[in-house]
Specification:
The structure holds two protein chains of two kinds. Chain A is mostly helical. In chain A, 77% of the residues lie in helices and 0% in strands. The N terminus of chain B is likely disordered. Classes of the chains: A mainly alpha, B mainly alpha.
Chain lengths: 243, 270
Amino acid sequence: MYEAFLDAANLGVLSLEPPGWGAVLLRGFVASLEIAFGSYALGLLIGLMGATGKLYGGEVARDLWEIYTTVVRAVPELVLILLLYYAGTDGINKLLALWGYDPVDINGLLAGIIVLGIVQGAYSTEVFRGAIKAIPSGQIEAAKAYGMPSFMILRRITIPAMLPHALPGLANLWMIATKDTALLAVVGFTELTLATRQAAGATKAYMTFFLAAGLLYLLVSFVSGIVFKILERRYRRGIAGPA
Amino acid sequence: MTIATETVTPNTDAERQGIFRPHRIVLALIAVALVVYIVYSMRWDWIADYQGQLIAGLWRTLGMLFSSAIVGFFFAILLGVVQVTGPRPLAWLANAFCSVIRGTPLLLQLWLLYYGVGSLFAQYPEIRQSFLWPYLRQAWPYGFAALTISFAAYEGEVMRGAFAGVPRGELEAARAYGMGPITMFRRIWLPRAVQRALPTLNGETVLQLKATPLVATITVVDLYGVISKVRQSTFLTYEPLLLLAAVYMILTALLVLVFRYFENRIPTKL
């Protein structure tokens, strides 16, 4: 049916079979999604550590997290990606050489996930910090009074209680994560945007490919909008809405 | 304003003692050592050779930032007004425009404009012969257009909330004074909405600053473009990027300071 639609609309270049570039585009799309999921998950982990570190950590930890979030949020993602991408792969190979191993070729997917995850982590640190601060302090004090160890407090009280406050910010961050994957095109990783440009350059059908890629990105943002709406409804049960 | 002061207010006695805590002095010493190491052990002789280009690039970056933010803000006001008061189809269109732009990566929009629309323009002899062609052949109009559209869409969403959030009573009071719709918009609605949107404007402008290096991918030689050229011709990996990161950090800090100054000057009694 897809092919029939393409024939009717004279969009043969988007065909999934080799003369068309549809498969290349879809492969790029999958790579983009993998990086978005991976870096988002890593960012959430870093963010949770950062927020607890900033709120409950010692003085040194608090200052170090502050430096991390300030620097990452002040430098353009593109520059950070270049710096971390080159410095990271170079640093790992230097370390390996120091221990007498041969240099390795670092997987572009993994490098992309780590680099974008570090960027995401700085933003989610701030989201989580604000959400945790919105929890009435009595709830955490009560958990402490029951003798819960701090990790259990985090798991049972802090995370469930802050989620409704954090969800709008987290939804925003997910949208940023999906769109930031496009920046990896600049370091030569074939995700959706670079695949689109390659296909467009080869066939000269620039508008067709860029619009098709735009539709794929919109699809992601549309679906995630619905998912986050459902999540928010679920986690805001029992909380009065805005007046 | 209350939010900003709350986050700055130290919440423990220890923090109140400021930067002269022992661990902060250690951190500062480490930072100084790092800077000294970077300055002395890395190569910085290329800065002198590229000084003129670097400064020109910086101006182009700033020009891109401010021109697109100012024009974009103007369109954002239109988008906001239309979404709140416009006739249903227009409001829907404006809303769809914001969602589409906010749902796709800026890099893709930029390449769509430059490679896609740019190649369409070239096919029409009418456009090739028009007075606009010398501009449309260059890259910067596409970069400017993409940045402006993006800023307008993001800020338009904010302005929609700001226009909708102006208290009914103030608008009713204006009408009761006999103001016409245009006077009311000019004197009450617009200033009050801009005032409400101002705190977000700071964040949006910083985001816009961080988006400007993308125009280098369509051959606009902004600061990032100059740095890329330096990296290609000197084979240095880190030094140019570190300088670039430092410049962007300084620019961000300046933007935040300027906006804070203006925010403090606007009386808020909300």
